[in-house]
Amino acid sequence: MTSAIAVDRLEVIFDRFRALKGVSLDVQPGESFGLVGESGSGKSTLLRAIAGLAPVASGSITVNGKTLGTRRDKAFYREVQMIFQDPYGSLHPRQTVDRLLQEPLAIHGFADGERRIERALDEVGLGNGFRFRYAHQLSGGQRQRVAIARALILEPSILLLDEPTSALDASVQAEVLNLLEEVRRRRKLTFLMVSHDLAIITHMCERLMVMQGGEAVENLVANDLVERRVTKDYTRNLLRASDGFVRTASEQV
C-alpha cells in the first residue's frame, strides 16, 4: 500500500539552526498519527515542512506516492490541508464566514460552491445562519469549526493538525476533538496531528512519534504510552510531566 505521507531523512535549517535533523516518518492512508514532544522538539516544523511553509535543506517528502519539490501546487492543496493552533489568527477578521469559505473554492475553480459551503458548515455543526457573520462575532470553538470547514471544503484526503484545540477552553476542546474524529471516520481521512497533550494524542491517534531537539526519539502505538511501555527516558519524563495523564488517557481510550 502506498503511504499517505512518507518523510525520509528530512533536514530543516533556519539561519544555520538545524530544526529537523534527519527525521523519517511513514503514515498509512486513513491512519491518525501523532507527534509529541516539548516545545522546540520540531514537531510543528515537520508539519510546516510538509505543507511547504518551512525550508527543506535535504531529505524527501512523499504524499500519496508523489515526491514533493520545493513548491506546492494547487493539486497538493486539494489533497492536503492544514488546521492551525490559533483560530483567531487563521481567519481574516474582515471577511465573513461565507467569504472565507468562498476563497479556496474560487482559487481552485469549483463550480458547485453553494453545495460545498452548505455541506461543510453542516458537517462542522454550524448552520447557514453563520455564513454572514464575521470572525469576531464567533466564539473560539466556532472559529475553529469554521477553520475545519474551510479545510474540508476542497475534500482533501490528508489533514495536518497543529495543536488544533490548545487555544480553546477545556469544555470546547472535547467537542472539537469529537468533531474531528467523526469527520475522519466519515471521510476516511488521514491525520498527522501535533499535540503537547499526551491524553489527546492517545485518544485521537493509533500510532505516534516522540520528538526531541529536532530528532525522532521513539515510535509507539498509542496503547504503549497508556501502559507506559516506553524505552526512552525522555518519553518517561514526558509522561511524568503530563499531570493526570494516566487517569485521563485510561478514561478516553
Point out poorly predicted stretches: 245-253
Large-scale geometry = globular
- The share of residues in extended strands comes to 15-25%
Q: Give me the count of strands.
A: 10
CATH 4th-level superfamily of the domain at 5-82 and 157-252: P-loop containing nucleotide triphosphate hydrolases
- If you compute it from the alpha carbons, what radius of gyration comes out, rounded to the nearest whole angstrom? 18 Å
Q: End-to-end span in angstroms?
A: 27 Å
The structural class is alpha/beta
Name the CATH class of the domain at 5-82 and 157-252. Alpha Beta
Q: Order of strands across the biggest sheet?
A: 6-7-8-3-9-10
Annotated CATH architecture of the domain at 5-82 and 157-252: 3-Layer(aba) Sandwich
CATH third-level topology of the domain at 5-82 and 157-252? Rossmann fold
Query: Percent range for helical residues?
Result: 25-40%
Observed structural traits:
Rossmann fold, disordered C terminus, single chain
Question: Secondary-structure blueprint of this entry?
Answer:
Blueprint: E1 5-14, E2 17-27, E3 32-36, H1 43-50, E4 56-63, E5 66-67, H2 74-79, E6 80-83, H3 97-108, H4 113-123, H5 140-152, E7 158-162, H6 170-187, E8 190-194, H7 198-204, E9 207-212, E10 215-221, H8 222-226, H9 233-241, H10 245-252
Parallel strand pairs: 3-8, 3-9, 6-7, 7-8
Antiparallel strand pairs: 1-2, 1-4, 4-5, 9-10
Helix pairs in contact: 4-5, 5-6, 7-10
